[in-house]
């Protein structure tokens, strides 16, 4: 199966993410993106327990909240759920690489970014209180596609867990939309490059008989 082209789009309009946006053809209806795509925007996050698609979190009565996140919404046509989870894990790894390059000098040498599955943390010591969550993510199936949401704290105020915002981590003002756009587009471009590389790797191989 060829992956084809992955489209990307940054939306300058603030959108509150409630969980209801994780639905098929959201990217088509909102951003006119046809086929497999990832769109991003900056906005508040408030996902109530009833809107969570992660049953483990729902049974715990969890919720997701932050004053502002950079949201990445993906919809992929063709890949299986397992393949979409692998795309999700790779996206978080690419996010880690982008943020490591963008750290403010005041944080260098005082901690590190750690990936655990599909989650990213800023770790400044060995105590639990020194491990702060930077992101949330989920992948889910629909009858026609696989959906992905990655939310990266821009301003972590209001989060129900120990959390940190990447605006502070990278030395950006909370209202610096240009920097949010720069990080978003850099991450989406990295994923797009991986996508095209995988597609070519599948296409160029001589079959073994």
Using the alpha-carbon principal axes, give the shape.
Answer: globular
Largest sheet: 5 strands, mixed
Q: Examine the secondary-structure arrangement and name the CATH architecture.
A: 2-Layer Sandwich
CATH superfamily assignment?
Bira Bifunctional Protein, Domain 2
Range of helix content: 25-40%
Number of helices: 5
Return the CATH class.
Answer: Alpha Beta
Find the CATH topology.
BirA Bifunctional Protein, domain 2
List the uncertain runs: none
Distance between the ends: 19 Å
Tell me the fraction of residues in β-strands, as a range: 25-35%
In order across it, which strands form the biggest sheet?
Answer: 1-2-3-8-7
Tally of distinct domains = 1
Spell out the helices and strands N to C. EHEHEHEEEEEHH
